Amino acid sequence: MNNPLRHASILLMLISLPALAHHSFFGRFNTTGNLELEGEVTRISWRNPHAHIILKVKAADGSFADWDLESGSPTLMTRAGVPADAIKVGDHIKVAAYPPTTAAREAFATNVLLPSGQELVLQTGVKPHFKDKVVGDFSYRFRTQGDRSHPELGLYRVWTFTGSDGFLFPESINRNYDLNNYPMTPAARAALAKFNPATDNPTNNCTPKGMPLIMEQPLPMEIKKQGNDIAIRIEEYDLTRLIHMNQTATPAGTKPAPLGYSVGHFEGNTLVVSTDHVNWQHFNQAGIPQSDKSVITERFTATEDGSVLAYAMTVNDPVNFTKAVELSKKMLYIPSETIIPFNCSESSWKR
Question: Which has the closest alpha carbon to 87: 125, 127, 121, 114?
Fold first, then answer.
């Protein structure tokens, strides 16, 4: 459906409005559509989990309305070379965005044309919209080769997500949310039927993710020794998981937690981690639940030259799955990468 509205100070173009089969970010935005908006920036928040631009837009009838333009993680945009101060309050800008799936005045901004004539690309995989040359290069997220310079580090280094291998959840599921690929029990399917992706998604806020969902995160993580144990420092939400290496099972009386309780051991050069006592109720952000019976087994294996980390996860949840769910991804060693403070803030953009 096309519904263009034109005015001297606004160009609003809706192309290919959402179909229910299409995946949308957080159930709110249609990634197959395109929306163009033009107006004045009245507020901006360049803070995780997502940047927000409040744009004052003039409609065809002469009235003004604020649009909340969400965009990607400022951490990812910083790595792509997009300056944090590129967009300023008072700027008159043009925006290309994914349109909303509802009547809400919100959209997911992918491209911004600044008053200077410079275009910013704000999202992975997005092409230039207004100009041939842009600022914002997300190609770093699709590296295929890690650095081989320090094989002696083994597991203990900063590992970088590679989009070339997809997220933790297989691309056929993660990109399209084809949840039928999961072996769900009737109880899980009943819970899924009640899930509203626009309001129930647990990730579009500053509440840290629990296991196993936190391991899907697309930012770097560091594996390091911590005394006799191993710590996994995760950039997203500034989290640290502690892997207890001097135990064979979770101690009696352990209280459940979002990250659960993790016990590890080595099988050759593979770190094997078993996690239980998880009270995070979400298997993924698309509505599949997780019970307190869930047991998560992870395997971390660095290649001999230290350039690649192979990661595999098996989730056994008898309440929600009829059989074990197996997931995997790869991460790369990029020596220049470091852990950047996530500094999540919801209050900075909520109106």
Answer: 114
